[in-house]
Design a protein that fits this description.
315 residues, alpha+beta, four-stranded antiparallel β-sheet, 48% helix, extended
């Protein structure tokens, strides 16, 4: 526990001040997942996993830095690229090595406290391994498809609109665009050439299908009040600027295909199976519980049943 607390403290100290700082736009958002390090002593190790530090003669390899970096929260990894984080992560590893060596020198590995923590860690790993084994043995394609059907059934039958837009800075510019469109100008061409939203310009203003809750209120209210083929007669103002909107189509929200959300469905089913495993163990066990004084018998409330499945997210 104390090692985890120390590591957390080190990481917080190293990265806390940078956690809210975004990198330059051309900096990769996240380092690629590190490849497995070559086996110790293999000819490729020196080239693929070089020594990046020595602490009293003991080596620290690049793979250890990559592994430590991968333990940072995903949001931090997105904001702080490996190249920027590297010196601090390496410093953490050096500090940890110094403390570890000092602790072993004091023979703390033989202390009751450390042995107790190791036992607790072993028990947690055994619990996790048992749950994984049981879930893996019960998981199958039929269960996943059944779970998918449940999740689709839980989806509300919301309306969706497919629309294009042209975003400009001023109402005058938007009014001029509406006049051009009313005069026969091609909406998609103008959306590619005239707007300030460069992402939308690349798709000729096509926003795809969206529900009312997906967009800011003024834009959504205007789009959902229009019919397919209709162009907004007046500009729509949002915090982003002035929009000219063209509705292309309307439909009821479609469930994403099974294969597209299979991973998400598997996660939901794994949670249900894990709860099922625990429930079976409880039913087959004799459990006696007492209050905090250890004298008065009490009844424990079993974990709640699995919640109603959430609708699969649109990819």
């Amino acid at each position: 526990m104390y090692v985890k607390m120390l590591r957390a403290a080190l990481l917080t100290a190293a990265f806390g001040s940078l956690a809210g700082t975004a990198l330059a736009a051309d900096t990769p958002a996240k380092a690629a997942a590190p490849a497995a390090a070559p086996a110790a002593g293999s000819p490729a190790q020196a080239a693929d996993d070089p020594v990046v530090a020595r602490v009293n003669g003991k080596e620290i390899h690049r793979s250890e830095v990559l592994a430590e970096y991968s333990q940072l929260p995903a949001q931090t990894q997105q904001q702080i690229h490996l190249n920027e984080a590297y010196p601090r992560v390496l410093e953490n590893l050096v500090t940890a090595r110094l403390l570890t060596d000092a602790g072993y020198k004091d023979k703390l590995q033989d202390s009751k406290e450390v042995k107790t923590e190791l036992k607790h860690a072993e028990e947690r790993f055994v619990q996790q391994a048992y749950i994984r084994k049981q879930v893996d043995s019960r998981m199958n394609e039929a269960l996943l498809k059944k779970k998918y059907d449940e999740m689709v059934k839980a989806m509300p039958a919301e309306d969706e609109v497919r629309a294009r837009h042209i975003l400009v800075k001023t109402k005058e510019e938007a009014d001029a665009l509406i006049k051009q469109i009313q005069g026969g100008a091609d909406f998609a061409k103008l959306a590619s050439e005239q707007q300030i939203d460069k992402n939308s310009a690349a798709s000729a203003g096509d926003l795809g299908y969206f529900t009312k809750g997906d967009m800011v209120a003024p834009f959504a209210d205007a789009a959902f009040a229009m019919k397919p083929g209709e162009v907004s007669k007046t500009p729509v103002k949002t915090d982003f600027g002035w929009h000219v909107i063209k509705v292309e189509d309307r439909r009821k929200r479609q469930a994403p295909p099974f294969e597209q959300v299979k991973g998400q469905v598997a996660q939901a089913e794994a949670q249900d199976l894990a709860a099922q495993v625990v429930d079976e163990l409880r039913k087959g066990a004799k459990v006696e519980a007492f209050d905090i004084t250890g004298k008065q018998a009490i009844s424990l409330t079993p974990p709640p049943a699995a919640a109603k499945p959430a609708a699969p997210a649109k990819q």
